[in-house]
Amino acid sequence: MKYQIAILAENKPGVLTHVSGLISRRAFNIETINAGYTEENDVTRINIVVNAYNETELNKVIHQMAKLIDVIKIVNISELPSINRELIMVKVKADTPAVRADIVNIANIFRAHIVDVGHENVVLELTGEQEKLAALIDMLNCYDILEIARTGPIALSRGTTPIKNM
Amino acid sequence: MEGSQAVIKCLKEQRVNTIFGYPGGMILPLFDALGKDSSIDFILTTHEQSSAHAADGYARASGKAGVCIATSGPGATNLVTGIATAFMDSVPMVIITGQVDSNLLGRDSFQETDIFGITMPITKHNFKLQSAKELIPLLRKAFALALSGRQGPVLIDIPKDFFYADIAYPENTTENKAAKPDADFIICAAEAIDEILKAERPVIIAGGGVVLGRAHKELIAFAEKYKLPVVSTLMGIGAFPNDHPLYMGFAGLHGRKSANYTVAEADLVIAVGSRFGDRQTGNIAHYIYEKHFIHIDIDPAEIDKNVHSSIGLSGDMKTILNLLMQREAVNNPDAWWKTLKKHKEKFAYEYTGKYDVPNIMHHISQTINKGDYAVVTDVGQHQMWAAQHIRRRTPRTWFTSGGLGTMGFGLPAALGIQLYYKNKKRVIHIAGDGGIKMTGSEYYTIAALRLPIISIIINNESLGMIRQLQKVYYGARYFSCNFEYKMNYVKYTESFGIRTYDVHSMDEFVEAFSNALALNEPQAIIVNAGKAFVEPMANTVSGINTFVNF
Question: Which residues contact B107 (CB under 8 A, 6 or more apart)?
């Protein structure tokens, strides 16, 4: 099972290493990890998707992570009503007007943006849930995908309570 | 104020009076400051690993944070085994390592090592200093972290140029406030008492957490109130008086049969400061069969980690045990005690006075329990024999490397412990001939300081525990466990200027031990013992009340 975990941590050097190191030491696989500033200056939010055998095993790791000194709060977002988004950029080969037109069409259908275009390629940007991103990639697979970069999902719970107050 | 002087001032503010360590280029500014200040005793060991073990021992005996310092690169990496040992046994330590100048970091400079990265999984927390300004706030935090909650080692890595930096000494504004148990917690405690009163065959497992939580008096009162039998883990020896009528012995893979049967037959296990380590439980499926568990531990992450408990109480051990004593003892444990008394009689060890290690341990136990002594072991067969046969009545009189099982821990730890106990308690150090070859160089420090440690080397010319494992699990194919090449241990310890006794019989041992006790100086006793196996040895596949036949 995949679980989306949100961690609030003090914005200090080594925090990401402490968190990711602990997860791998406890024999869990990190599917994706990303981190960024939050509404508070000195707090970093780390969003992780981990692959765990079941919830009991997951809770053991959450308990271990909660022990890390720099970790302020850790929440399993998967068990809450939440919104989940990921951003992806795809570079596709488009060396003929016909192919370019096709790709622009596909982009429009998915409400993706064309963020760069060259003589031989275009770059698409799409934000959405992972299923939608997968569908786009599936369509683009009919063409020549040169490169993909993605952020990994981030998630927010619904309602007014931020996870720091949970 | 210069950074190095500020560090010394901060150490004094934290009431540190003994530091262990080894010098090197990147930590020399701190040594220079240390040398100018006579109020902190600096103990120079012969190897950084020993510095760490000695600081660990000092911490285990005193309950204060043990402090050790070393240089960057090899100095720091040599500490690693010592830090991991302290981490596994939750020992509070502050480790200061020197690092290359901040502008040389990341260039593979001479003696540069990422000790921050290396020690991340074996410290409670570690710091890599970014600026000289952080020096004092983070050093204070290191002490606070090492000593709070579940204790553990904290490392702080300081680039050399920060020791020279001119910094302001910030005021100490930290305050300690104790948390109060909340309502949920009190409900859980009430449920726990219900379980205890309902149980037909309850047992307490006393672990190292009782010692660390300073809760031995509460534990005795708790056990006595509900007439609960008590077994101890390897780390819990001394947490409960071993001569108490409620005591059933040391439990675990090499536990006393009386203790293992008690745990195996119990319907309710109350674990107090024990983490259900695999050397305690053996096969986990057998262990948990038809049992309920109440788990009391300071670390919430321990609850349900190895064993799923019906009730988990996480917090200060004293507070929890006091909460659990607030009800009338209406349970009736008489039938259970009838069984337990039979176990005690049936499995009582018969001491024949024969010349073997159990009888030697028994003699040590009988002798030292007339006075004030601390026992420090190394790791291996002798450690298990000591745990089985040496009785301890009070906490912090039994020291051993439990979680990590570090061979070579004993002698340097004994050094730290004797330095703390000074004349109050004399240290009896017990080791095997394998472990003593690892850190035996520490006899130099012990002899130089004239510390009155009595060091007993059980010499069976082999790695006994390896031999035992090869016998049981590898078809007695003995490999790399026998020391064919003979070494003269008497000459070895004597070369440090330590008076040494060479023992070949029980009478000789009794005489040597009594002579050693009479002299207030470091001494060694070489016990030339034959090869043997530690019994009982629980079968790891079929439960802790089944045993391997030798």
Answer: none
Question: Does A25 touch chain B if contact means CB atoms closer than 8 Å?
Answer: yes
Residue among B116, B125, B128 minimizing CB distance to A69: B125
Q: What single letter denotes the amino acid at residue B477?
A: R
Burial profile A26-41: b = 16 or more Cβ within 10 angstroms, e = fewer: eebeeebbbbeeeeee
As a whole-number percent, the residues of chain B with pLDDT over 70 amount to 99
Q: Which amino acid is at B496?
A: F
Q: What total number of domains does chain A contain? A: 2
Q: What is the DSSP letter of B2?
A: B
Q: Concatenate the DSSP letters of all residues of B30-58 into one string.
A: HHHHHHT--SSEEEE-SSHHHHHHHHHHH
* Residue from B119, B127, B129 whose CB has the most chain A CBs within 10 Å, to mutate: B127
CA distance linking residue B375 with residue B377, whole number of Å: 7
Given A53, A80, A107, which residue is the final one in a domain? A80
Task: Give the 3-state secondary structure of residue B424.
Answer: coil
How many helices and strands, by DSSP H and E, does chain B display?
A: 24, 18
- C-alpha span between B240 and B206 (Å, rounded): 7
Chain A residues close to B150, C-beta within 8 Å: 67
Amino acid in the structure at residue B9: K
Reading the block at residue A151, the tokens are 């952020």
- In 3D space, the residue among B409, B399, B415, B490 whose CA is nearest the CA of residue B449 turns out to be B415
Tell me what ipTM this predicted complex has. Answer: 0.84
Nearest to A14 among B116, B121, B305 (CB): B116
Q: What are phi and psi of A91, to 5 degrees?
A: -100, 120
Instruction: Confirm or reject contact between A14 and chain B (CB < 8 A).
Output: yes
Here the CATH number for the domain that contains residue A95 is 3.30.70.1150
CA distances from B221 to B246, B294, B393 (A): 11, 18, 15
Q: What is the pLDDT of residues A35-77, one digit of tens each?
A: 999 999 999 999 999 988 888 889 988 999 999 999 999 999 9
Q: How is residue A119 written in tokens?
A: 């003589």
* Domain shared by B188 and B114, yes or no: no
User: Cα–Cα distances in Å, from B257 out to A133, A149, B344, B464?
Assistant: 62, 61, 9, 21
Tens digits of per-residue pLDDT, A85-105?
A: 999 999 999 999 999 999 999
Distance CA B5, CA B35 (A): 11
Q: Are B151 and B92 in contact (CB under 8 A)?
A: yes
What DSSP element (H or E) covers A126?
strand A121-128
Query: CATH number, domain at B289?
Result: 3.40.50.1220
CA distance B193 to B332: 14
In this structure, are A76 and A112 located in the same domain? no
B76-129 pLDDT, tens digit each: 999 999 999 999 999 999 999 999 999 999 999 999 999 999 999 999 999 999
Q: Are B384 and B373 in contact (CB under 8 A)?
A: no
Measure the CA–CA gap between B436 and B443, rounded to whole angstroms.
10
pLDDT in tens, B156-208: 999 999 999 999 999 987 766 666 777 778 888 999 999 999 999 999 999 99
Instruction: For residue A29, name the pLDDT band (cuts at 50, 70, 90).
Output: confident
CA B71 – CA B69 distance, rounded (Å): 7
**Parallel, antiparallel, or unpaired for β A121-128 and A82-93?**
antiparallel
